[in-house]
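task queued by scheduler; priority normal; single chain, no ligands, no partner chains; default sampling; output format set to structure tokens
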Amino acid sequence: MHGIFKELILAAVLIFGAAAHSQTSMPAQTLDTEDEAPVRGFLHLSDHPRKFAFNSLLDSPDSQATDRQSWGSISGTILDRTGAVSVGAKVRLTRKHPFLSQEVASGNNGQYSFSHVPPGSFQITVTAPGFAAQVFSADLRSGQAFLVPPIVLAVASAATEVRVAAPTVEVAEAQIKEQEKQRVFGFIPNFYVSYIHDAAPLTSKQKFRLARKTAVDPITFLGTGIYAGLEQAADRYPEYGQGAQGYAKRFGAAYADALSGIFIGNAILPSLLKQDPRYFYKGTGTTRSRILYALASPVICKGDNKRWQPNYSFISGSIASASISTLYVPTTDRNVASLIFENALIRIAEGSLGGILQEFVLPRLTPHIRHHKPSQP
């Protein structure tokens, strides 16, 4: 019995002790102290207890009051170079951290302002169409109302590139003067070749000038004389006879052939058809391509538009020159059709041979040539 009573007494003590402890601990859970406020948030008011507790500490009334007291403001006025206010200029406030940057436009009075600006260094950048960007930098103290000195916009300096080029006629004139110095072995005229791949097109006046200079060059007379002497030695055109009279007839006929070929094929028709009578040195590529280019020179030429096209001037000039020659050759040799086409084909073949010489031989025999970028067909 004593053991049973003893156990009952002990059980009662434990029950009443637990009840007393429960009554004294509950008020402690409902105390609304500053230290336990985050704990209450932790237990009941947030799905993310740690974040809520941290933000609760930052957003406490005392913390907010302290931040607002440290904020400042920045304001100023934008003017143009005449001193008038500038409306609509973009004003950008830049801080150390990009997310703190702001941008506004200057108002009707040219003013701008930024409020609630945290203290620290800042930069103001002003831009407006037609004006150079202006930059102002300073430091904002805690709670300061910073007044930026008036920012005056300056007209942007336009970088203009002026390219002055000589007129095409003057360029062509300078190039012709250079061509007129080209002489094989230093004395044989070689005026109708250009070593400039994009040479300026010639005017009609320049084409006739080049033809006239070639026609009256002493070497042209010398070459005609040699040709007439060979004809007389071979007794070509017996009707002309021998002696000085026969030689003069042969010389006259040969020089007439040269004149008609030079002026009709290199001046008159090129002026009418707007084609360039010159040979344009290629100088690059395979040997085969250069040979084909040279052989085709009598039938392919550059137009005054610098584009390659059929050489109507040279072909028609060759036929015209051959036709004229029928007027002064002996009557026994005036088989008009055969003579015309025979002489025309001979002239075209001479043009192809001349192209080969111009491409591979004559540049090496012509002193003081100014080599430029090679021509491309």
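post-processing summary
- Residues 243-273 form the longest helix (31 residues).
- The chain is about 45% helix and 15% strand.
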